[in-house]
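Researcher: Here's the sequence for the chain we discussed earlier.
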Amino acid sequence: MVYGPHHTGSALRQVARARRRDPFRVLIATILSQRTRDENTARATEQLFAKFPSAKALAKAPPKNVERLIRPAGFYHIKAKKIKEVAKVILERHRGKVPKELDSLLELPLVGRKTANCVLVYGFGEPAIPVDTHVHRISNRLGIVKSKTPEQTEDQLSSYFEREYWIEVNELMVRFGRTICLPIRPRCQVCRLRTYCKWYAEQKLAARNPD
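Model: Thanks. This is the structure I predict for it:
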């Protein structure tokens, strides 16, 4: 699964609220969100589900029609093929319903842990921690985790935070990563967490001892 630069925690939350947690819509929206922005994900998802609102409808939809509807999300040739494949598997193996178990979600084609966890959180309201580049970066910078992969980050965050807070972890870190803890040139001067930040302390030390 691609951990692209734009995770759609906010967009998925809006999808969940608008449709009272429709797991299938959340699943497809998560796939569409790869390498695009929230507004593009929202537009593509809305257009697609206005025409093909179920796994059955999407599985049988003409590819060209799907491509046209999801064009705002970018990479629409590839994504159209992906979401139709997922829809067919859900229709054939799960009677058109998205499974609620993590292992079953991971058995779906092209679904990795981040996507599966997004479905659990935004589709079913179940505790999970989707890890995208923001969550992975911020967790390591703060020193909450010491990890090299998103999977390791998820495992360590699950131990660090109590289960009741898991759902909020992704949303909070994504917002923080977009506004303060940027990938390049983070805004440490206005960050209220810099006193506790391992990365910030290391940068200050390096500045004092350049050799």
